[in-house]
C-alpha cells in the first residue's frame, strides 16, 4: 500500500509540477528505488525502505539538499518489483526513462543489483547499492555503480583470526550452507579461511532453499564432532538449524551463524539458544563514528531511527540510510545535479559518516569499512571486533 | 547406529508432514477442491497459538483446539459463502477461487503481522529424550502424538458419526447422497471446515517447531500436495502413510545424497509414483 501510495503521490506530483513551470520541477531531486516490497524478499525490501525514508525525511526537514546554494527537496520514487529480479531490471529502466530519476538506489541483494546495474550504466545514472556485497557485482568495469558493503571475505577473515588465536583447541570445523548466492559464497570463503588457518573442515554441506528440516544434516554434523559450527542462511533457516542442533545435543565450542543473528527477531525466536552465537555483519548499532553527513554521529543516527520506528536499526537499514547520506554528500560536493559530475564526486569521496569511513575502490565497492564481529551475550549482541569499537571479549563454549 | 537416528528423524518429520496434509487431503478427496488456502490456514493457526501464548500464556498444545475451532468457523464460512457457488464447476475454477482467496488471506496476514519470523519459545522447553544413541526432540514427538490423536479422532468421526457417514457418502457419490436426503451443501461446508480445523490445529502444534511467517504458507502447501499424491487422496490413512513416506525419503535422502538433494529426491520419487501408481500408495480408484 505504502509503495502504491508513494508512486501515486509521485505521479501526482509529477503532473502538478509539469503543469506549473519548468523552473519549479527543477527544485526536486528524484531518486528511483526499485525494491522487493512484496514477495519472498519483502522483509528485506521493507527494511531498506525504512532507511531511505529516514534519510529523505531528515534531509527535507533540514531544508533539503543544497546544490550550488539552492535548496532541493528529496523525493524517492519507490516501485515494487515483487521479489522478481527480471522485473527489477525493467523497473530500473522505467524509473530512469519515464520517471526521470536523477539517481538510483540499486535493488536488493547482489543478484538484482548486478542485473540492474547494466541499465543505470547505459543511461549514465549514478547508482548506489546498499545491500550488494559480492565482488562479481562490481567487477564489470562499470563507472556509475557504487556499493556500501565490503566484499564477503571481510566478514569471515576477522572471525577466523579471533577463533584460531583465542582457542587453539578449536580444530574441527563443520559448515552448513544455504545453497544461495551470498550464503554459499560465505561458506566457500569460510572453508578456504579455515584451511588457511590450519583447521580441519570435517563437514561441508549445502541445503536447498525452502528446506523445512535439518535433522539429517545435523545427525551427520554430530557424527563429525566439530569444535566450530559455521552455518549460513536467512533468519528462518538459522532459527530452525539452531533449534534442531539443540534437539540432537550438538553444542560446539564456537557456533557462528550468518546472517540471522544481526536481527533482533533471531534472539527473540531462539531465546536462550541464541547465547554465545557469533556472527558478523557490515554494520552494527554499537559502532561509534563521528560523521560529516546529515546524521552526524552513530548515536544520533540510532536515536533518530528509534524515534521514528521504535526499533534499533540493523545493518541493512543503516546501509540504506547511509546510501542516501553518501549521495547527498556527493551532490553537495559536486554542486550540480549533472550525473557525470556527481559520479566523479562519489569516486573521489574520502570522509567519515555515521556508518563508518567512506571511500570507494576503483570498482566502486567501498574499501574503507571494517565490518564488526559480534556475539550474543546475555541475550544481546555485543561487538567483539574491531578493537576500536569492541564491547566485550569473545566467549568460547566448553 | 547412525541409521537409527536418521530413521527416528524421518519418522518424526513424517508425523509432522502427515499433520500438515490430512486436512488438505480430506477437502481434495471429498469436495474435489484443491484448497490452495491450506498453507495460509496453517500459518493462521500458528499465529493464534503464538498470540495465545504471548498474551495469555496458553500452551500451544491447548490453543491447538482454539486455533482449530477458529479455523473451522472460517473454513465453514468460506465454503458456504463462496466455494459452494462454484463447486459443480470444473476443478480449475475452484482452484482459481482458492488461489485468489489465498492471495487475499496471505497479504492480509502480511499487513497484520508483518513478514518478520517469530516463534513460540516455551518457558519450559521439552528438551530431548535420549534413548541410547538416539535423540528424540520432545516438542516434535509431543506435537506429532497430539496431531496423531487429532487425526485418529477425525478418522472416528468420519467412520462412526452420522455427519461422518454423510461426508463419506458425498465423497462416493454426490447425486446418490443427495437423493438419500443428505444436505450436500451443508456437508460440503462442514468438510471444508474440518479441513481448516486440522490445518489450524496443525499450525498451532507446529508453532513450537517452525518459525512463523506468512511467507511459510507456500512451503506447507507444497508439502501437503506431495504427501497427498504419495499417499492417495481423501483417506485419513493415506495422508498418514504419505506423510511418513515423505519424511523417511527426505531423511534418508538428505543423509545419503546430502541435504541439498533431499527435496530433489522426494520429487523424483513422486514423479515415478505418478507413472507407476497414479492413485498413490493407499489411493483407491473409482472415487469420483
UniProtKB/TrEMBL annotation, chain A:
InterPro entries, alphabetized: BCAA_transport, Leu-bd, Peripla_BP_I
Every Leucine-binding protein domain range? 29-368
Give the matching Pfam families.
Peripla_BP_6 (PF13458)
Q: Does the keyword Transport apply?
A: yes
What is any one GO biological process for this UniProt entry?
amino acid transport
Q: Which UniProt keywords apply?
A: Amino-acid transport, Signal, Transport
Source domain of life is Bacteria
Keyword Chloroplast belongs to the record: no
Q: Which residues form a coiled coil?
A: none
Q: Where is the signal peptide?
A: 1-25
Q: Which family does it belong to?
A: Belongs to the leucine-binding protein family.
Q: What is this protein called?
A: Amino acid/amide ABC transporter substrate-binding protein (HAAT family)
Naturally occurring in which organism (per UniProt): Aquabacter spiritensis
UniProtKB/TrEMBL annotation, chain B:
Localization (cell): Cell membrane
Keywords from the UniProt entry = Amino-acid transport, Cell membrane, Membrane, Transmembrane, Transmembrane helix, Transport
Q: Name one GO biological process term.
A: amino acid transport
Give the CC-aspect GO terms: plasma membrane
- Give the superkingdom in one word: Bacteria
Tell me one GO molecular function of this protein. Answer: transmembrane transporter activity
Record field: transmembrane: 6-29, 36-55, 61-79, 91-114, 134-155, 189-212, 224-249, 261-282
InterPro entries from the entry? Answer: ABC_transp_permease (IPR001851), BCAA_transport_permease (IPR052157)
Q: How does it sit in the membrane?
A: Multi-pass membrane protein
Q: Which CDD domains match?
A: TM_PBP1_LivH_like
Q: Which PANTHER family match?
A: AMINO ACID ABC TRANSPORTER PERMEASE PROTEIN, BRANCHED-CHAIN AMINO ACID TRANSPORT SYSTEM PERMEASE PROTEIN LIVH
The UniProt entry's sequence similarity note says:
Belongs to the binding-protein-dependent transport system permease family. LivHM subfamily.
Specify the protein name: Amino acid/amide ABC transporter membrane protein 1 (HAAT family)
Source organism per entry reads: Aquabacter spiritensis
Amino acid at each position: 500500500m505504502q509503495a502504491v501510495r508513494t508512486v501515486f503521490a509521485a505521479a501526482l506530483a509529477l503532473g502538478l509540477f509539469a503543469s506549473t513551470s519548468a523552473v519549479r520541477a527543477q527544485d526536486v531531486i528524484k531518486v528511483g528505488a526499485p525494491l522487493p516490497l512484496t514477495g519472498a524478499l519483502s522483509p528485506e525490501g521493507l527494511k531498506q525502505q525504512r532507511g531511505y525514508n529516514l534519510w529523505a525525511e531528515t534531509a527535507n526537514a533540514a531544508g533539503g539538499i543544497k546544490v550550488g546554494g539552492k535548496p532541493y527537496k528529496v523525493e524517492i520514487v519507490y516501485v515494487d518489483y515483487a521479489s522478481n529480479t527480471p522485473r527489477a531490471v525493467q523497473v530500473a529502466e522505467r524509473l530512469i526513462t519515464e520517471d526521470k530519476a536523477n539517481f538510483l538506489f540499486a535493488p536488493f541483494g547482489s543478484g538484482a543489483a548486478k542485473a540492474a546495474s547494466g541499465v543505470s550504466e547505459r543511461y549514465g545514472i549514478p547508482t548506489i547499492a546498499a545491500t550488494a556485497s559480492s565482488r562479481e557485482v562490481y567487477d564489470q568495469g562499470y563507472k556509475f555503480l557504487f556499493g556500501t558493503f565490503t566484499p564477503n571475505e571481510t566478514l569471515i577473515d576477522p572471525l577466523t583470526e579471533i577463533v584460531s588465536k583465542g582457542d587453539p583447541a578449536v580444530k574441527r570445523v563443520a559448515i552448513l550452507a544455504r545453497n544461495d548466492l551470498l550464503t554459499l559464497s560465505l561458506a566457500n570463503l569460510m572453508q578456504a579461511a579455515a584451511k588457511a588457518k590450519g583447521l580441519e573442515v570435517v563437514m561441508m554441506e549445502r541445503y536447498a532453499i525452502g528446506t523445512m528440516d535439518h535433522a539429517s544434516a545435523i545427525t551427520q554434523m554430530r557424527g563429525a564432532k566439530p569444535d566450530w559450527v559455521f552455518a549460513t542462511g536467512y533468519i528462518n533457516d538459522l532459527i530452525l538449524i539452531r533449534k534442531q542442533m539443540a534437539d540432537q545435543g550438538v553444542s560446539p565450542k564456537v557456533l557462528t551463524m550468518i546472517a540471522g543473528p544481526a536481527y533482533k527477531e533471531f534472539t527473540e525466536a531462539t531465546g536462550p539458544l541464541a547465547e554465545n552465537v557469533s556472527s558478523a555483519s557490515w554494520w552494527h548499532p554499537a559502532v561509534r563514528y563521528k560523521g560529516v553527513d546529515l546524521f552526524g554521529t552513530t548515536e544520533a543516527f540510532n536515536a533518530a531511527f528509534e524515534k521514528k520506528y521504535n526499533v534499533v536499526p540493523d545493518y541493512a537499514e543503516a546501509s540504506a540510510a547511509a546510501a542516501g547520506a553518501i549521495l547527498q554528500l556527493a551532490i553537495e560536493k559536486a554542486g550540480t545535479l549533472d550525473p557525470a559530475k556527481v559520479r566523479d564526486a562519489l569516486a573521489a569521496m574520502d570522509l567519515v559518516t555515521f556508518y563508518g569511513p567512506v571511500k570507494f575502490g576503483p570498482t566502486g565497492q567501498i574499501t574503507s569499512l571494517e565490518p564488526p564481529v559480534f556475539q550474543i551475550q546475555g541475550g544481546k549482541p555485543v561487538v567483539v571486533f574491531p578493537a576500536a569499537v569492541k564491547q566485550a571479549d569473545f566467549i568460547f563454549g566448553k | 547406529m547412525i541409521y537409527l537416528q536418521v530413521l527416528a528423524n524421518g519418522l518424526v518429520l513424517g508425523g509432522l508432514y502427515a499433520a500438515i496434509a490430512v486436512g488438505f487431503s480430506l477437502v481434495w478427496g471429498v469436495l474435489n477442491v484443491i484448497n490452495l488456502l491450506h498453507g495460509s490456514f496453517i500459518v493462521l493457526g500458528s499465529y493464534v497459538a503464538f498470540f495465545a501464548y504471548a498474551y495469555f500464556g496458553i500452551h500451544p498444545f491447548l490453543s491447538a483446539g482454539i486455533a482449530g475451532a477458529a479455523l473451522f468457523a472460517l473454513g465453514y464460512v468460506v465454503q458456504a459463502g463462496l466455494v459452494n457457488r462454484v463447486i459443480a464447476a470444473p476443478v480449475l475454477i475452484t482452484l482459481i477461487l482458492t488461489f485468489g482467496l489465498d492471495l487475499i488471506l496471505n497479504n492480509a496476514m502480511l499487513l497484520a503481522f508483518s513478514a518478520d519470523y517469530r516463534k513460540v519459545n516455551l518457558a519450559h522447553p521439552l528438551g530431548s529424550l535420549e534413548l541410547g544413541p538416539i535423540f528424540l526432540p520432545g516438542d516434535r514427538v509431543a506435537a506429532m502424538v497430539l496431531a496423531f490423536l487429532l487425526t485418529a479422532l477425525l478418522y472416528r468421526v468420519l467412520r462412526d458419526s452420522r455427519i461422518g457417514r454423510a461426508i463419506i457418502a458425498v465423497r462416493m457419490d454426490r447425486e446418490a447422497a443427495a437423493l438419500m436426503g443428505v444436505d450436500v451443501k451443508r456437508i460440503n461446508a462442514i468438510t471444508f471446515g474440518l479441513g481448516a480445523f486440522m490445518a489450524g490445529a496443525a499450525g498451532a502444534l507446529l508453532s513450537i517447531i517452525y518459525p512463523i511467517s506468512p511467507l511459510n504458507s507456500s512451503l506447507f502447501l507444497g508439502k501437503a500436495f506431495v504427501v497427498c499424491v504419495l499417499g492417495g487422496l481423501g483417506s485419513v490413512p493415506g495422508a498418514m502413510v504419505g506423510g511418513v513416506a515423505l519424511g523417511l525419503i527426505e531423511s534418508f535422502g538428505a543423509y545419503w545424497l546430502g541435504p541439498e538433494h533431499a527435496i530433489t529426491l522426494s520429487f523424483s520419487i513422486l514423479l515415478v509414483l505418478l507413472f507407476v501408481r497414479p492413485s498413490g500408495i493407499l489411493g483407491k480408484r473409482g472415487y469420483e
